[in-house]
Amino acid sequence: MNNEPEQTSAHFATVYGSPGQNPRTLGPLRVFWPLAPICFVAGYLLRAALPVPALSATQAGFLFLLLAIVLALFIGWSARRLRSFLKGAEGEEKVARILSFLSANHTVFNDLELEEQGADFDHIVIAPTGIFVIETKNWGGNITFENGQILYNGQPPSRSPLKQVKEATAHLADHLTHAHCPDVPVHPVLCFVDNPLQDGLANIGGVRICTNSNLHELFENNIETPLGAGVLAIIAKELARCSEGG
User: Fold this and answer.
1) How far apart (Å, rounded) are the C-alpha atoms in residues 89 and 82?
2) Rounded mean pLDDT of the chain?
């Protein structure tokens, strides 16, 4: 991971980390780990074909056929999963590009991990109006809201993105508290990439909902009292330490 801060201009935010790195590196591992037991079974069947087989020829042939079917199904499943991971990485890269053009009094962390809590974050923005934990979703379908829930193509997703970003926000708030950082508001944000929302910016159960097209409005239209530069520097220093693996 690239943990060195980047700053394209003195007018823009300081940026740490590479967006989409986790999906691009860990995604293939999560997709292809089932190959290990498949290869083990294939090895067992090959051993059975030795001069003194533990299986009859009929049994070995049937299991070879079954293994071929399982392998074909796995290839189809893994291709869909891999596309999903890569699409997620593309979404994170689009959001990171927008965040990099925030003004110089912002600090952006992409793909940050807090190892002691097992938490990882798509994006964290340290802004004069608070800390923003941004979870990016590049789903490419129809996003609607109903009874305080998010529906994807009319159905609730298998994992609630609202719960996901709230848990990430709680992890970050706990970490900052234990690191003796100043007490500041930490806002959960759910950003949908290229998914138009009928009502624009929204708020569901305390989670701010936006798209990549209006993400910048979160930082422009906030009426909270701005945080001091010293407070922002303390928090940025702590998260930079985590980004560097310290």
Assistant:
1) 11
2) 79
